[in-house]
Write a structure and sequence with these properties.
The complex is a heterodimer of chains A (404) and B (184). Chain A has 404 residues and is an alpha/beta fold. Chain A folds into three domains: 175 residues, FAD/NAD(P)-binding domain (3-Layer(bba) Sandwich); 123 residues, 3-Layer(bba) Sandwich (FAD/NAD(P)-binding domain), CATH 3.50.50.60; 78 residues, Enolase-like, domain 1 (2-Layer Sandwich), CATH 3.30.390.30. Chain A is built from ten helices and 28 strands. In chain A, the strands form eight sheets. A five-stranded parallel β-sheet of chain A has the order 5-2-1-9-21. The termini of chain A are far apart. Chain B has a domain of 50 residues: Alpha-Beta Plaits (2-Layer Sandwich), CATH 3.30.70.20. Helices cover 22% and strands 17% of the residues of chain B. Chain B is built from six helices and ten strands. A two-stranded antiparallel ribbon of chain B has the order 1-8. In chain B, strands 2-3 form a two-stranded antiparallel sheet. Chain B starts with a strand and ends in a 6-residue tail after the last strand. The chains are: A alpha/beta (404), B alpha+beta (184). At the A-B interface, helix 8, strand 24, strand 25, helix 9 and helix 10 of A face helix 3 and helix 4 of B. Bound molecules: flavin-adenine dinucleotide and iron/sulfur cluster (2 copies). The site of flavin-adenine dinucleotide has 36 residues of chain A, from helix 1, helix 2, helix 5, helix 8 and strand 24.
Chain lengths: 404, 184
């Protein structure tokens, strides 16, 4: 019996692959979510009222059943009993496994400030939370979003679309601190402000003010920002509680090898919960992205079914459109001293490529993102670049790579 | 799997394929004379790149292990189970640009007007691909991989570029390009 914990994209990809690779062994997916498999990327649009929740469906329990996979929804795995090779569920049921996959994903981080637990303070990771925020926007007039990462900014714009006054407060000096540099951040901030969202960077939140049992404002930088709705979006952390309690080796995430196997040879981990090696730096990282969750889910399934495929790492990357500005950020977009940095600014677009020792290390395209994947794929291939001038040109393409 | 193949030697860089793709697949009028006045300007899903003399028409390679399929978080990027062709289901596309970020061939075009991804679907619902039908020199061919490799072998001594079928996957180191496999 294969057991998969979590029906996010890592878990559901793995379950599907297991069914294909080993049609004779039963597969069960256990999840504490109450809905179908959905795309988290849709959540801000659901808050904005652009889509109904049902538009985010990727797979339902019936789809799983049709594929011959048992999916138990609304069940939390509360303990992993490795000696007995069993998982214990909140309902008291027990499942024996031969191989188990921990695809438990991420949890939003709630900063330890006074009042953070007050009614009216939300995080955004699940469809349920998106629904709660949507409902709250019916009565709310002003909102503060804490954190200017991808989820924070998209949520802020969604709340604005619902007619709220929205302020984003970010502790670091720029937006999308991990994906942008200062110049790109300034450009993006301008587009977001044009949409009517207030942005304050370099400002830490000290406390949440509570009045008559509900949130009334956010205290930051010596001021109080009135708010009847607060979204905490300072980041996510890997959901590793089960693994830790079971004595499985963990760092920030669940430590896995290139086969997605944990320190227990019968237990695997994939997706946002897993910590793997960064191919370029050699450091252990948690890429925490959709494509990585899919790739790791596939490798985990292959390994669980006895295959030898390996996960060779993926460079940190993200793409998004915020406030009408498309952006792609791949690898080390800051660079360090001694790096060659190519920058092109043209028609409101910003294109930057970082080169170290003749090899591309980072790509940051804002406003004009075509061909980003061509240059991005050169990072993981570690190709030596002979002619660098054309890289940031809008005319650069795959044809340049094969021009002989 | 049948695909559009490129004989790089024959490409003159005339961009007829681009025009025809834009007109047939992206304009509302379907006629060049009218299409040039449309707003938004019809966009082509094939692009002729490279300097004159070594230009190259480039469109989606419909990779076997396509990274765009892995990257798409909305289920919009799909593969036709029979034809093997990859395509974007426009109604599902969220314009998140994960596919633009991932495709090693630069085959996905982010449509600024529609906020959705556009790419070549090998005109899977048409008799013949618009680009292939329009190419005046026969630089674009539609057919099975085996057949194409044979054609290349027959032209021993000439350089024809052909993009191998298993690029894409991060395991496979992104992309492979064989120069015509001829002489091997
Ligand atoms: C608003 C938003 C926008 C995003 N945008 C992007 C983007 O543009 N690009 C990108 O790459 N990524 C984006 N992401 C991140 C992306 O969604 C995640 O990286 C991806 O969903 C991770 O998938 P996963 O399967 O590893 O984990 P998750 O999706 O977190 O799934 C884990 C599942 O396990 C369940 N679970 C956990 N513990 C237990 C337990 N003990 N018992 C039972 N069930 C359990 C959880 O309920 C959950 O369903 C975004 C996320 C959000 C919220
Ligand atoms: S990765 Fe690029 S070339 Fe390959 S199928 Fe996807 S869009 Fe086409
Ligand atoms: S832009 Fe559209 S097709 Fe491309 S990955 Fe996003 S949702 Fe999928």
């Amino acid at each position: 019996m294969y057991i998969v914990i979590g029906q996010g994209i890592a878990g559901s990809t793995a379950a599907t692959m297991l069914r294909k690779q080993d049609p004779h062994t039963p597969v069960a997916v256990i999840t504490n979510e109450l809905h179908y498999v959905y795309s988290r990327i849709d959540l801000p649009d659901i808050i904005a009222g652009k889509y109904e929740p049902a538009a985010s469906v990727l797979r339902t329990a019936e789809d799983f059943a049709k594929a011959g996979i048992e999916c138990l929804m609304g069940e939390t795995a509360v303990a992993l009993l490795r000696d007995e090779k069993a998982v214990l569920l909140s309902s008291g049921r027990r499942f024996q496994y031969d191989k188990l996959l921990l695809a438990t994903g991420s949890l939003p981080v709630v900063p330890p400030v006074p009042g953070a637990g007050a009614p009216g303070v939300y995080s955004l990771w699940t469809l349920q939370q998106a629904g709660e925020i949507f409902d709250a926007t019916g009565k709310a007039r002003s909102a503060v979003v804490v954190g200017a990462g991808l989820i924070g900014l998209k949520t802020a714009l969604a709340l604005k679309k619902r007619g709220l006054n929205v302020t984003v407060i970010e502790k670091l000096p720029r937006l999308l601190p991990r994906q942008l540099d200062d110049e790109a951040s300034d450009m993006l901030a301008e587009s977001v402000r044009e949409e009517g969202v207030e942005i304050l960077v370099g400002m830490g939140v000290d406390a949440i003010s509570v009045d008559s049992g509900a949130v009334s404002g956010v205290n930051a930088g010596g001021r109080v920002f009135p708010a009847d709705l607060v979204v905490m979006a300072i980041g996510v952390k890997p959901n590793i509680g089960l693994a830790v309690a079971a004595g499985i080796e963990t760092g920030r995430g669940i430590t896995v090898d290139e086969f997605q196997r944990t320190s227990d040879p019968d237990v695997y981990a994939a997706g946002d919960a897993a910590e793997t090696l960064d191919p370029l730096t050699g450091d252990r990282t948690i890429p925490a992205s959709w494509p990585v969750a899919v790739a790791q889910g596939r490798i985990a399934a292959s390994s669980m079914a006895g295959g030898r495929a390996t996960y060779d790492g993926m460079v940190a990357m993200n793409a998004v459109e915020i406030g009408g500005m498309p952006l792609v950020s791949i690898g080390d977009i800051e660079g360090r001293t001694g790096d060659e940095v190519l920058v092109e600014r043209r028609n409101g677009a910003y294109r930057k490529v970082v080169i170290r020792d003749g090899k591309i290390r980072g790509v940051l395209f804002l406003g004009e993102i075509r061909q980003a994947g061509v240059i991005g794929s050169l990072i993981s291939r570690r190709v030596e670049i002979a002619e660098v001038e054309r890289l940031t040109s809008p005319h650069f393409s795959y044809a340049d790579l094969i021009a002989v | 799997m049948k695909r559009v193949w490129v004989d790089r030697d024959k490409c003159l860089g005339c961009k007829t394929c681009e025009l025809q793709c834009a007109v047939e697949r992206n304009s509302t009028s379907k006629r060049l004379a009218l299409a040039v006045h449309e707003d938004p300007r019809p966009a082509a899903r094939v692009g002729v790149f490279g300097p004159t003399g070594s230009s190259f028409p480039l469109q989606c390679r419909h990779c076997q292990d396509a990274v765009c399929l892995m990257a798409c978080p909305s289920g919009a990027m799909q593969r036709d189970p029979e034809k093997g062709t990859t395509f974007v289901a426009q109604d599902k596309c969220r314009g998140c640009w994960m596919c633009v970020m991932s495709c090693p061939f630069g085959a996905v075009i982010p449509s600024a007007q529609f906020k959705t991804a556009m790419k070549c679907d090998a005109c899977m619902n048409m008799e013949e691909a618009a680009c292939v039908a329009s190419c005046p020199t026969g630089a674009l061919v539609y057919g099975e991989e085996d057949a194409y490799v044979k054609v290349l072998a027959a032209k021993r001594g000439r350089i024809a570029a052909y993009v191998s079928s298993i690029p894409g996957s991060p395991q496979a180191q992104a992309m492979g390009l064989d120069f015509s496999k001829e002489g091997k």
